[in-house]
Amino acid sequence: MTVTKSGFVAIIGRPNVGKSTLLNSLIGEKVSITSPKPQTTRWQILGIQTLTSAQIIYIDTPGIHRDEKRAMNRYLNRIASAVVLDADVIIFMIDVTRWHDEDEMVLKKLHDAQKPVIFVMNKIDLLKDKADILPIINKLKDKFHFTHIIPISAIKEDNIHHLEEEIVKLLPEGPQLFPDDQMTDKSLRFQAAEIVREKLIQVTEEELPYTTTVEIEEFKQSEKLTEIGAVIWVERPGQKIIIIGKKGARLKKVGIQARRDIEKLVHTKVFLRLWVKVKENWTDDERALRSLGYE
Ligand code: GDP
Ligand code: MG
User: Fold this and answer.
1) What tens digit of pLDDT does each residue of 170-206 get?
2) Which of these, 168, 182, 192, 207, could form a disulfide with 178 (CB 3.0-4.6 Å)?
3) Which spans in the chain are helix H?
4) Is the pTM for the entire model greater than 0.90?
């Protein structure tokens, strides 16, 4: 069979509803990092799924934020809006266990989209009674015309296949855009940096996502070994101390966990060196953001 349909599917929703988890479940590999803390996904990630007759290109978006005070937030907002324009199909995702003001805000952004919108109600595994989704459906069905309403569990991969089938039906006709075996548009280098950032977020208790960024300074691949040197940029000396931890214990943990995941990605042994450096107030400075690659 050849691919006769292809298109872009944007996954939109407030932080923490499970967008990146869904993307990883659909693709079957870790293409986007996830965490219980909001705002983990900072970049736009493409996840590419090639089926026998269709190629679906998913766009995992960062959350849309009300608070636009800081440069990083403005940046996140800009990509979220751009994605709505680029997509052929939009998945509007919520966490079924709680409807939030921010969900309402995201939905407002979709009103003028003029695209099919699939309402995906995620985390149904957390519901004791599946009928609990009915009040949410009733509340929304008069406010917005959804093409489909699909309850899923991204983490348990429940009803994911049904979602996939409905997406394929909505795709426009088109050629295969990426090779069969390509699962993301991001380089290994980028994915390695993201994995380090994921472990940092998971290992540090304090809120760090906004103020940390990871820059890969060295990435040398040979048949059996990949050597990686990465700088973790923070805003303040205090954050550096937090990340390094007592006698370096926390940074070591980040390194060990990141190395394990990167080894799965590159299929070689990995030698990972991490440094923590301070760059003051970079989130408030668009120029500094650009210098670190946030174009
Ligand atoms: P995003 O900010 O929308 O990309 O959300 P993430 O994919 O990073 O997920 C946020 C948190 O919700 C993580 O801790 C996930 O493990 C969790 N999560 C995602 N999907 C599900 C689900 O279907 N069920 C449950 N119980 N948790 C989920
Ligand atoms: Mg995410």
Assistant:
1) 999 999 988 888 888 888 888 899 899 989 988 887 6
2) 182
3) 19-27, 71-86, 101-109, 133-141, 160-170, 188-203, 237-244, 249-266, 286-291
4) no
